[in-house]
Amino acid sequence: MTFIEVMFSSALVCTVATAVVMTMSYSGHSFAALINYQELDGASRLALDTMSADIRQADGCSTSANLSATNLILVGTSVSSAQQYTLTYRYDSGVRTVTRRYADANGTNTTMLLTNCAAFALSYFQRNLRTGPTAITRWTMRHGLTFAS
C-alpha cells in the first residue's frame, strides 16, 4: 500500500465516521424532543380531562365580575356527602403553572395540574336557550393551553 492510498482511505474513514456521529447526535436530540413532547401531551390531556369532568359535574360557574381568562371558579354539590364545594382553577403566568383548588366544609386541597405552561386562556360565551320571561341562560366555555418546550 502506498502512502497516497493510506491517506485516501484515512480521509474516507474519517468522513464516514463523522457522518455516523452526526446522524447519531441528531437522532438523540430528536428522540429527546419526542419524549418531551409526549410527556407534555400526557400532562395536558390529564389536565383537560380533569377540568372537563369537573365542569360537567359542577352546578355552575361563578359569573359577573369573577369571569377571568386565567381563573375559573366552579360551584357544586358533592354526590357522596351532599356538601357544597368550590373548585378553582388558576393559571399563574409568573411560574407558568395551572392549579386546581377544591374547597368544602372539611377543608381545602390544592393540586398542581400543569407545569411549564406558557399560555392558558378561558373564554366564556353566554347562550340563551329560550327568550321571554322564562329565559334560561347557560354559560359555555372554551379553554386553550400552550406549552413551552
Features:
149 residues, alpha+beta, 5-stranded antiparallel beta sheet, 1 helix, 39% strand
Brief overview:
With 149 residues, the chain is of the alpha+beta class. The protein is built from 1 helix and 7 strands. It has one domain (3-147).
Return residue spans where pLDDT drops below 50 for at least 5 consecutive residues: none
Tell me the strand percentage band: 35-45%
What number is the mean pLDDT?
Answer: 80
Biggest sheet, spatial arrangement of strands: 1-2-3-4-5
User: Structural class, from secondary structure content?
Assistant: alpha+beta
The value of Rg in angstroms is: 27 Å
What does this structure look like?
The protein has 149 residues and is α+β, with helices and mostly antiparallel strands. It has one domain (3-147). Helix content is 37%, strand content 39%. The two termini are 53 Å apart. The longest helix is centred in the first third of the chain and has 55 residues, at 3-57.
Describe the secondary structure blueprint for this structure.
Layout: H1 3-57, E1 60-61, E2 71-77, E3 84-92, E4 97-104, E5 107-115, E6 117-128, E7 137-147
Antiparallel strand pairs: 1-2, 2-3, 3-4, 4-5, 6-7
